[in-house]
Design a protein that fits this description.
- By secondary structure, the protein is an alpha+beta fold.
- The chain has a single domain, classed as Nuclear Transport Factor 2, Chain: A (Roll).
- It contains four helices and seven strands, in the order H-H-H-E-E-H-E-E-E-E-E.
- Strands 1, 2, 3, 4, 5, 6 and 7 form a seven-stranded mixed sheet that branches.
- Strand 4 and strand 5 form a beta hairpin.
- Helix 2 packs antiparallel against helix 3.
- The N terminus is likely disordered.
């Protein structure tokens, strides 16, 4: 067998395996790691009123559904953050996050725990976020939240 042919086949197999296991990320991070970091950053943006993070994380055509049924766009989310009423805390429950890939689309299910200003109310949301990879970057194109009510 020709050595160049073997190297070519081995390289193609490596690329296929990397794609299959989500290893086509930037900065050496897997696609799954990138998405988990974006989810962390998104939670943090509601504490720090990080409108800039939302510019990066949300696609321009993103549409979300809040827990009360309200539909929101990227512009709506950023306008709400600019009001300056952040949460005291918003923590991604990473042990409750699943990421499934379908080509350049990822469906992410998870939950977060939060505490709100000024009344100090705490709660937990479960959610589904849909990411699409465009021009090498993952962005949320759809999101739906559901507030989990305390049953006590």
């Amino acid at each position: 067998m020709n050595r160049a042919w073997c190297v070519t086949v081995a390289g193609m197999c490596s690329l296929l395996l990397a794609a299959a296991y989500g290893m086509s990320g930037t900065n050496g991070k897997s696609d799954k790691e990138q998405i988990l970091q974006l989810e962390r950053d998104w939670c943090e943006s509601f504490v720090s009123t990080g409108a800039a993070a939302n510019e990066r994380i949300l696609a321009d055509d993103c549409v979300g559904t809040e827990s009360d049924g309200t539909r929101v766009t990227k512009a709506d989310v950023i306008a709400e953050l600019n009001k300056g009423e952040p949460l005291i805390s918003d923590h991604l429950n990473e042990n409750d996050v699943t990421v499934r890939f379908y080509g350049n689309t990822a469906v992410v299910n998870g939950s977060e725990s939060w505490k709100r200003k000024p009344d100090g109310k705490t709660g937990r949301n479960i959610w589904t976020d849909i990411f699409v990879k465009r021009n090498g970057h993952w962005q949320i194109v759809a999101s739906q939240d559901l507030e989990v009510l305390d049953k006590s």
